[in-house]
Design a protein that fits this description.
It is built from 19 helices and seven strands. The longest helix has 37 residues. Among the domains are: 58 residues; 191 residues, Cytochrome P450 (Cytochrome p450, Orthogonal Bundle), CATH 1.10.630. The strands form two sheets. Strands 1-2-7-4-3 form a five-stranded mixed beta sheet. A two-stranded antiparallel ribbon has the order 5-6. Helix 14 packs across helix 16. Helices cover 61% and strands 6% of the residues. It starts with a helix and ends with a helix. It has 432 residues and is α+β, with helices and mostly antiparallel strands.
Length: 432
Amino acid sequence: MYIVVRCQRVVRIFLPEVFAQKSIFTMAAGMISSYLVANMQTSLLFGIAFMTAIWYMRGPKNLPPGPMPLPIIGNLHLLAGKKNFQVFYRMFQKYGGICTVYLGRSRIILLTDINLIKETATKQADNFSDRFLPPLLAWTIGSEGSLFFQNGPVWKERRKFIMQALRNFGVGKKSLEYKINEEARCLMDVMTGIEGPFDPSEYTTLIIANVICNINFGRRFDYTDESFKTIVDKFRYLFGTASLTGFANTFPFLVRTPLYRQLTQTIQYMISYVGKEIKEHQDSLDEGDVRDIIDMYLLEIKRQQESGEEVIFKPEQAWRAIMEIFGGGTDTTTNTLLYGILLTALNTEVQDKVQEEIDRVIGPDRQPCCEDRTNMPYTDAVLMEIQRFRPVAVIAPPHGVFQDTQLAGYNIPKGIGNVQMCFKVVLLSWTS
């Protein structure tokens, strides 16, 4: 439009008789404008393609094969509207057990071969054990205080402490049985009062979240507690939004725009909620009565301060570990239980055999315990088959590469993320 106006002014001044013939002038100006606009679009597209080609060619040589990336978005067009593991599985079928995937301008190495995954965890563990911080987290909460996204001696001490704290509160021990059985009884009481069909996902999430809350906060919540239901819903929203292949991770600057206002508000709500719990624990802390992990965390901070040691556990970072324990434990276990309900409902003959074994070994007068497992081989096999069919995590948390190395004859540059596809590994290792 600017070009057309300028042409009109020139013709009006120097060629008034031509300007009088408006139809001819308008036609000519339109043709010139269309030509210039078309050429501008072509030039822009050419420029983008040229810059992408330069970036692509200047990248590391001899990378694993993979689909050709498009300008700006990389391979996101292949993932849009589809399940990640289904797209990654098709990449495995085409490119083999190792391939390169572009998420925008970022590269990740996708590993789907069990032997290559073993090599990164054993022979090349030092090269592939770096922590990969997703861009979305880098733009929102960073890595300070994290159990999963940090490296170094401070992280090792923090992780060691949290693992010991979890064991102290029964994780991996028989003492956790009581909490689990208590929640199972509460769940049965709720389900018994429901008439007709219902969605078990809400109650399954709440029962698992309550077990984690017992460890983190020292108490369980009623299933009708609105604050409890809100915190669980927000965690589920975060897990659904913060996908490694999502737009927010590919273009993290979007989290500063209204498009992701709900995401940033949810994160702030979670931090505020856990911070409030920590403040209440600080006000009622009793060294003779350690109620939960928060108490242990606060007592460890106090011990370091009094001993004159370097304080590596900071009160302002405590929320991060609590959030990661809650989120990691709730999502994975809930998905396993839901798939267990689905698969046994679809295979009623298996359900009948499991019920028969439960009635014979446990009976109606007591709760199950870990010792029953050795006497229930069929039920144990069904549980393992459920976890084979649907692994705890379809795609393992990403790792980073400490230094330039090689894998399967390909160059793997320092800093690149690598993702392991558990679903495909478990499926093929079973069938082979």
